[in-house]
Every structure is written in structure tokens, then in C-alpha cells.
Write a structure and sequence with these properties.
Elements (H helix, E strand, L loop, with lengths): L4 E2 L16 E2 L2 H17 L9 H10 L5 E6 L6 H4 L7 E6 L6 H13 L4 E7 L3 H8 L5 H7 L3 H10 L6 H19 L3 H8 L4 E7 L6 E3 L17
Parallel strand pairs: 1-2, 3-4, 3-5, 5-6
Antiparallel strand pairs: 6-7
Family: Belongs to the beta-class carbonic anhydrase family.
Organism: Clostridium polyendosporum
Cofactor: Zn(2+)
Amino acid sequence: MKNILYEEDAKNIRNIIGSRDKVIIRANTAKKILIEGNKRYVSGKLANKDISLKVLSQLYTNGQYPFAAILTCSDSRVSPELIFDVGLGDIFVVRNAGNVVDSIVSGSIEYAVQLLNVPLVIVLGHDKCGAVKAAVDGGEVSPNIKAVTSNIDPVVKYVKANYKNIKGEEIASKVEDENILYSVNKLLENSVIKELKSNGNVDVIPVKYSMATGEVTFLEIFNDNLKQMNDTKYG
């Protein structure tokens, strides 16, 4: 294991991708790395990453030092490691249908920010989300699937009550956006995550992935609304 590398000492933040050193970086730098990675993914000019068993062995021996934690959907077409063109050990990923937050998800992200010192948390939603569609359609589903869609139901109710001028796929798209924000808000109900964010040690950002283009959109335009996002808003 080499010495700890601080971002201000790194000549090129791309050197952090797939780095086997412990790299101490801030949220803004982590975000830049992911943005650059997505640009490479979209262009098809991927980074030359070593994902061999040798690297895995080093990670096994030395431990993991991811620079971002990502909550995303289980959809087989949405793979954060590919979307952001990162290597082994770079991101800590939590996945479930609909990128929803329950106590297990909250605890997993808490583990990342508190014990792994991850500076950036992303909630990564996407278009054409099946879990969102199931919640919007509101049909009969099994108890297990209902356990998933029930987390999205408050968002569906909010969108249908406040966006009466939209129909069909527009409703689902709006619910996808609001559901990302809702999950960000639910994560910030975790006292550990909330305190780390308040102290400037962690940032929590809503992001949406377009399967049509491969591009991600950082929804920071909505960040000013986060303080309004609570159970009252969604009923």
C-alpha cells in the first residue's frame, strides 16, 4: 500500500480512477471525476482501467477507499460502474428497484460516509423506471412488490395532485424526478448523514440517467427545494 494521496497533491484527478492508494478528496472533486467518466462513457473513449485479479487481490489485502456512494435502481440497463467509467473499488453501490430508501439502504449509506469516509452520495434514478411505472399504474401486485412500490406511492400522490396538466408518460417521468428527490430527502433524515452534510464533509446529490443518450443530469437545480421536501409535502 502506498502513501495516502490528497487531491491537492494529485496532478490529474483522472489518476484517482482505479487508484489503489487511499485518496482523500472532496465532494466537488468526486463529482468532477464522475462527470468526466460519464463523458467518456457517452463518447465511447473509455479509460484504460486495470480490473484484473491482481487489482482485486490488492483491494482484498489493503481494503476499499471509494470516493462516492451511489444509490440506484436494480434495472439491468443501469450500471453505475459503466455509466461513470470507474474501476474496482472506486464507488460504493447500493441498488434496489426504484432507488428507494428504507432502513437498510439508509444504514448502508451511513456505513459508506461514516466508516469509509466517502465524501459524495448520489441518488441515481433513470427514465423508463419499471418500479415507478408500477407505482403510477397502481394495479394489483404481490405483497413483496408492494413493499417496493409503497415507498413511491407518496410521490405518485403528490405528482397527480399538483401536476394535473400532465398525462401518461409525462406523469411517470415527473414521478421519476420527484422520487429521486424524495430518496435524497429520506437519506437526509438519517442523523449521521445529515450532520456530515451540515458540517460540509458530505454532499448528497440527485442525479438522473437517460437510457436514450447514456448521459447523466445532475439535478442540483432542485437542491433549493430540498428543505421543503418532507412527509407533509408527500402526504
